[in-house]
């Protein structure tokens, strides 16, 4: 029997196919991107400890830059999907082009800052005298790829809004392969050291950005859309992205505060936190793929003025998300004791990580709600609410993490309390705020 009210079984299966056709390729693209860091780590790790430590700091800076500008993808997806749903394909492509032009401008400006401030940045992060030149070399060599990284975000957002998540997947997979070959060749074949790895990443990201932008440009040209930048459209994209930038900054602040608290709880606790966080991030990719599907489908349905379809998409994506969260939670909680030895031989670290994996395993079904509903509200262009909700949830989290900072013991118990505060308190507050918002209709503005 159909478990989605008001939707026949055939309609539900058709909706499931639409959701999965977007979510599965999106998941592949999301997982492919972190392969760049893993590939560079494997290649650079054989150069020496200082080089690997330098890569850790420099890649953290690059990942943070991309995370800050992720609104280029999110804002573009919702706006393009809404235009497409309204039957305005030319307008959808024009919005996508404006997003790409905005990404290019921000990328060039960020590139200049990253090159000029590379050494002060890595020094401020506490790098030793041996690590500073390695981190600086990688950051300066990889910085030219920043415009490409941001164009990839905007172009991917445009293609997702056009209901195409397969093309970004193909480009991401090919990019990972090219980056592997390029990194090995430049590091060892040309003897460039860590800078060779950074240059390979930069060239690959520039190539990926060029390919994805060319695909959007080709579609725009075929429909008679002007390719020149439109200041009004670029400014509109920037305005739409500003609230999402605030939302992203609140999330990054919560993550940084959590890491700082784990550091205070001792070296073993910090090491265990890294294991738990790595597994948490992997689960986040799966749930974020559903958020991307929800974002594209909700934007399309709003543009088509189909409020019933919007509600159907929300219900079904939440059902998929909760089920996926529960399934992953059972695996993580049950297999934690078997997984942690793969990361470390320290029994203290193993125990702390395994106990905290039980904590996040229990809370993963709850985590599905804010992931999916973030996508829903982004697809609706409700960025202002998401910004305020981000600030509110951070305010709620601060006393919880503060209590862990002040009173939690070192070791397994302290880390368990920290993850209960983050996955239960911070993520729970996000689930509550987005859930209450989604239940209403103020965000559901129909039409293009």
Describe the global form.
globular
Spans of 5+ residues with little confidence (pLDDT < 50)?
none
| Range of helix content | over 70%
| Distance, first to last CA | 35 Å
SSE run:
HHHHHHHHHHHHHHHH
Tally of distinct domains:
2
Overall pLDDT score: 85
**Share of β-strand residues:** under 5%
Radius of gyration (Å): 22 Å
Question: What is the count of helical runs?
Answer: 16
**Strands, count:** 0
> Could you describe the largest sheet, including whether it forms a barrel?
none
- What is the structural class? mainly alpha
Family: Belongs to the multi antimicrobial extrusion (MATE) (TC 2.A.66.1) family.
Protein name: MATE family efflux transporter
InterPro entries: DinF-like, MATE_fam, MdtK-like
Membrane topology: Multi-pass membrane protein
Report on this model:
With 448 residues, the protein is an all-alpha fold. It has 2 domains: 229 residues, no CATH class; 197 residues, no CATH class. The protein contains 16 helices and no strands. Helix 2 packs antiparallel against helix 3, helix 3 packs across helix 7 and helix 14 packs parallel to helix 16. The two termini are 35 Å apart.
Task: Give a brief outline of the structure.
This protein has helices spanning 9-32, 35-45, 49-68, 71-85, 89-116, 118-124, 132-142, 146-161, 166-189, 194-222, 231-264, 267-303, 307-339, 347-379, 383-407, 412-439. The model has no long low-confidence stretch (mean pLDDT 85).
Quick tags:
84% helix, globular, 448 residues, mainly alpha, 0% strand
Topology:
Elements: H1 9-32, H2 35-45, H3 49-68, H4 71-85, H5 89-116, H6 118-124, H7 132-142, H8 146-161, H9 166-189, H10 194-222, H11 231-264, H12 267-303, H13 307-339, H14 347-379, H15 383-407, H16 412-439
Helix pairs in contact: 1-9, 1-12, 1-13, 2-3, 2-9, 2-10, 3-7, 4-5, 4-8, 4-11, 4-12, 5-8, 5-10, 5-11, 6-7, 7-10, 8-10, 9-10, 11-12, 11-15, 11-16, 12-13, 12-14, 13-14, 14-16, 15-16
């Amino acid at each position: 029997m159909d478990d989605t009210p008001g939707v026949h079984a055939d309609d539900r299966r058709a909706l499931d196919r639409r959701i999965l056709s977007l979510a599965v390729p999106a998941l592949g693209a999301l997982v492919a991107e972190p392969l760049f860091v893993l590939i560079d780590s494997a290649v650079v790790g054989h150069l020496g400890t200082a080089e690997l430590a330098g890569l850790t700091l420099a890649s953290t800076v690059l990942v943070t830059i991309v995370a800050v500008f992720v609104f280029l993808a999110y804002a573009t997806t919702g706006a393009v999907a809404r235009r497409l749903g309204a039957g305005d394909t030319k307008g959808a492509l024009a919005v996508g082009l404006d997003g790409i032009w905005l990404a290019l401008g921000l990328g060039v400006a960020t590139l200049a800052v990253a090159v000029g401030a590379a050494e002060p940045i890595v020094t401020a992060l506490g790098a030793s005298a041996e690590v500073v030149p390695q981190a600086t070399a990688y950051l300066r060599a990889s910085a030219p790829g920043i415009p490409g990284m941001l164009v990839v975000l905007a172009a991917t957002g445009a293609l997702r809004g056009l209901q195409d998540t397969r093309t970004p997947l193909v480009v991401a997979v090919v990019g990972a392969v090219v980056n592997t070959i390029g990194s090995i060749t430049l590091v060892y074949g040309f003897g460039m050291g860590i800078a060779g790895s950074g240059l390979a990443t930069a060239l690959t990201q520039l190539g990926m950005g060029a390919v994805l932008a060319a695909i959007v440009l080709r579609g725009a040209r075929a429909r008679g859309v002007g390719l020149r930048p439109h200041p009004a459209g670029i400014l509109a994209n920037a305005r739409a992205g500003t609230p999402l930038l605030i939302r992203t900054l609140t999330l990054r602040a919560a993550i940084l505060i959590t890491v700082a608290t784990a550091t205070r709880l001792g070296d073993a606790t910090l090491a265990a936190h890294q294991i738990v966080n790595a597994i948490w991030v992997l689960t986040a990719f799966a749930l974020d793929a559903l958020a991307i599907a929800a974002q594209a489908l909700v934007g399309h349905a709003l543009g088509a003025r189909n409020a019933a379809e919007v509600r159907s998409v929300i219900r079904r994506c939440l059902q998929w998300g909760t089920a996926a969260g529960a399934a992953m939670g059972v695996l993580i909680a049950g297999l934690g004791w078997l997984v942690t030895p793969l990361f470390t031989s320290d029994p203290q670290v193993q125990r702390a990580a395994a106990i905290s994996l039980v904590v996040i395993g229990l809370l993963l079904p709850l985590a599905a709600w804010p992931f999916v509903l973030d996508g829903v509200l982004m697809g609706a262009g409700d960025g202002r609410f998401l910004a305020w909700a981000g600030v509110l949830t951070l305010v709620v989290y601060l006393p919880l993490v503060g209590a862990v900072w002040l009173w939690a013991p070192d070791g397994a118990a302290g880390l368990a309390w920290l993850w209960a505060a983050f996955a239960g308190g911070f993520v729970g507050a996000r689930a509550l705020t987005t859930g209450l918002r989604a239940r209403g209709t103020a965000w559901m503005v129909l039409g293009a």
